[in-house]
Amino acid sequence: MLIARCFVFLSLITFTANAQYTETINSNRPGTSHGAFAIGWNVFQVETGVSSYSMEHKNLNNSEIDGYKFNYLFRYGLLNDKLEVFLEGSVLSRNVLDNNYQNNYSTEISETLIGEQTIGFKYLVFDPFKNKKWHGENFYSWKAGRVIKLTDFIPALSVMVGSGFNFDDKINYSDQFFEMKKTVHPDLLNQNITRIRNFNHPIQNISPFVGIATQNHFKGRWVVVNNIFYELAFKNPTFPDYLPKSTNYNTLNYLFTITHNLRNPNWSIFGEFQTFKNGVYSDQLFKFGAAHLISKDIQADLNVGGSLKNTPSLFYLSLGFSKRFDWHIDITDVELKQMKDFKKNQKIQRKADKDSEKQQRKNDRKGKTILDFFKRGEVSEKKKVRKEIKDLKKESKKLDKETKRQNRIDRKKNK
Prior knowledge:
The protein is an alpha+beta fold. 21% of the residues lie in helices and 39% in strands.
């Protein structure tokens, strides 16, 4: 798939109306749009696909690229079914015929490349299916649940953020012909080798993105998904200063996907339109395919697609396989309330225990202070008694001296 940011497809199996977790696998394959719902808490999913593709670029003297692309996607659900983290990547094995040279010169090589690696997060902001008045089961009318209502046009909404990381400069801005557009610097042995057309574009190593995904369900079998993504191009700082910088290298991407679940619930079909634009490569792609549910945790898919333009033209055929590792534990609203009450009581108990320990420490400090007071009182009293005794001794000595002096005076008088 050409746009790495929009690399997941909505579930081809009908969602349950009141939760993000589904009893059957919610695979993102085979398209490239992103459904609004996450796969569910504590669910891990591996999605892989092999594509055979062929491209030809009229403006590059009919240069051609054909080969195989192996895609892999890892998803994990977090935070009560609302948050999902995903990691996507690809490996390409391709044959490149480069005709973008003067004097009928061309090159042909075969190579294996590591495609862009993308990590991102998706968070469900609004879920209209939580509103029982809008999407509750009508037990009195079979037809009521199978007609389009105004509330069906209120979509589920999620936001996505993340970043792509480019490890090979031969593919930038999702353009597989990026290497052919670079200026050739001839050496002494190949002085006559020059490009027919030169494009001086900066290399993109990191590409953070932000996006939204909306999802609507109609008549129980139709699902419509819309995606809008905006990707920032962090250009290589070695981009020459003398080249024009007015080009907008950021990418705006829009996708529209419609899915229909057939009467046999194990089969679904889809159609998708994708358009994207940046300063290097813009295109409009059409995709069609089907998915088959092998078991509640395994899905296989087939899809084809391409472009109607010739700068470049594109046709691909893709086979995919998805496997879910389901460790999800379903929790009812009553159980969820009980868990919340239990956690609340635990919090209150911890606070009470903490206050009790604090009060105990305070009392211990107070008791220690009183004890110290009495101890200090005893010491003061002893000092006071010792001082009184010392004073008494001084008075006694003084009195003895006075008595002796008076006796001497009396003896002198008697003589």
